[in-house]
Amino acid sequence: MPVSLNDGWAIAAPEDVGMDGTRLCGIEDRLKLRGSRLHAVVVARHGKLVFEQYFAGYDQPWGKPDGPYEFDATTKHDMRSASKSVTSLLVGIAIDRKLIASVDEPVVKFFGEYRALKTAGWDAITLRHLLTMSSGIQWDETRAWTDPENDEPHLGFEPDPLHYVLSKPIAAPPDQLWVYNGGGTDLLGNIVERVSGKPLEVFAREALFEPLGISDFEWKTYPRNGKIAAAAGLRLRPRDAAKIGQLVLDHGAWAGRQIISADWIAQSVVPRFQAVGYFGGTLFYGYQWWLGRSLSQGQEVKWIAAMGWGGQRIFIVPDRDLVVMVTAAQYGQPKEGLAAMDILANIIIPAATEPHQAN
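Structure (tokenized):
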């Protein structure tokens, strides 16, 4: 049973929300079979927190030494690229507040001081193309971290990462090629800062985290240039990260309050591109959200997810009214994230014994 922290989560026994608690308690034994390096598993159903379990172990936390760490319900954890999905929510809030007209606004409109960098093709790129990673910007994050041709490290190493991204050539017309691109997400985060007149961390706190009852969080900056890492720097308690999932599951509402429009949530989770090269090409991509499916007890079950390097996962399973949040230290492992997929498909979804009746 989860502990009560007076953090806004209603707590319930699994059986009270139609889940098999005994089955959930088999998660630890299942994880041992895979040597998973998981740090936390949090499960919510019907808007209530019903299960949480934490595991001590090795970690590589941002800005701290690699090594063994203890984890519990009050411990923040790196979200890594799951931060991208939160940045997408902030873009949606800015659009809801009419700080941004729409996703079809041209990106270069927001970066007038960099107009001298503009090369052919940039005028056609919109916020929507950044959100869906279909901008056509020449970008490669698949290389070794030490390879100078890997674009991602430049976001932290360059004195001005915006200059670096905006100076990149355009390799393909927008909407033609899906390429994973954290630089585009950092542009989105900076656009939110520009239109709101506030640092991204401040806007996130006021517009998203405070309404969700999240008070203990960090959004890290790159140590060499001090710019906020919109694509990867968020640190949250796992049960607070699960609130992000619940917000999406409940169409932008939390505790009866509409934090972000239901329309933005609906648009965000439309599968728009095949995520070529990721997990065998079985995943789709929306507005910085992943869309996938699991085979559970012979049934195909669709889910929405925020995913971060090392095995950080927020799964939203609408057909079962489930949210599952997992943190881990599977950094660079060839089977990164498979333990979370395994317990989702083979323990957590099957534990939802009572069918969900959609409203």
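The chain has eleven helices and 16 strands. The first strand starts at residue 10 and ends at 11.
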